[in-house]
Amino acid sequence: MNQFACIAGIDFSADAAEVARRLIGVTLLVDGVGGRIVEAEAYDSSEPAAHSYGGRTERNFSMFGPPGRSYVYRSHGLHWCLNFAVREPDHGAGVLIRALEPTHGLEQMRARRGLQDERLLCAGPGRLAQALGVTRAHNNLALDAAPFTLLPATEAVAVVAGPRIGISKAVELPWRFGLAGSPFLSRPFR
DNA sequence: CTTAGGATCGCCT
DNA sequence: GGCGATCCTAAGC
User: Fold this and answer.
1) A79 CB and strand C closer than 7 A
2) Residue at A44 is within a domain
3) pLDDT at position A190
4) Average pLDDT score over residue span A124-139
5) Domain of A69?
6) DSSP single-letter state for residue A163
7) Residue A184 domain-assigned?
8) A113 CB inside 7 Å of strand C
């Protein structure tokens, strides 16, 4: 295992699905604001739902960089979404961070989201990025340095898996992972 | 509770 | 010109 790709006890050079599963329970902060990851999805250049499926472009180049860096893209013209690049350079794999259980900087997240309800602050990739202040400026940055902080899970977690959300291709792959029973998911598992 | 439509940018055919 | 790894609101049942 490449120890330089190891962050918060996770080997980012592993398969996207394995990294996504192991990220559940890890704390993610951006400038000290964030919480515990409760939902993540894996994407890989070998399957057509991934942005990297068609090869490197201006938009997705950070998916093809070294593991342990961020990939931020704009969705539907108005939302930002945060991913972690995994595997090795030129492969094109990543993990979409879909939901957090808010733990740090609640008031700042409420202000950015214009909402009080804790359950809706980070329940979805666009909401999460807005609450943490993630924009294009956060693309292609190392995850083990400021403004990012990743902290290992402090206890064992029960992880469930299911089909990914909001895609039309490769819908059969069970590459969505979540913390069992969490009220902070973007949508429940069934 | 479920569904439908609009907002709005950048990549792709 | 079409369509997305989305979110919010409004209306219908």
Assistant:
1) yes
2) yes
3) 85
4) 96
5) 6-179
6) P
7) no
8) yes
Query: A106 lies in a domain?
Result: yes
Mean pLDDT of A150-169: 95
Q: Does residue A190 belong to any structural domain of this protein?
A: no
Residue A137 vs residues A62, A94, A141: alpha-carbon distances, Å: 13, 18, 9
pLDDT above 70 covers a percentage of chain A that reads 98
Strands A93-104 and A79-86: antiparallel
Q: From residue A63, give the alpha-carbon distance in Å to each of A42, A47, A107, A110, A116.
A: 12, 14, 32, 30, 34
Domain of A82: which CATH number? 3.10.300.10
Is nucleic acid strand C under 7 Å from A170's C-beta?
no
Distance in Å from C13's C1' to A17's CA comes to 39
Give the pLDDT score at A1. Answer: 55
In chain A, the number of structural domains is 1
- Decide: CB of A96 under 7 A of nucleic strand C: yes
Q: What pLDDT band is residue A174 in, cutting at 50, 70 and 90?
A: very high
Q: What is the pTM of this model?
A: 0.96
Q: What is the distance in angstroms measured between the alpha-carbon CA of A189 and the sugar C1' of B1?
A: 17
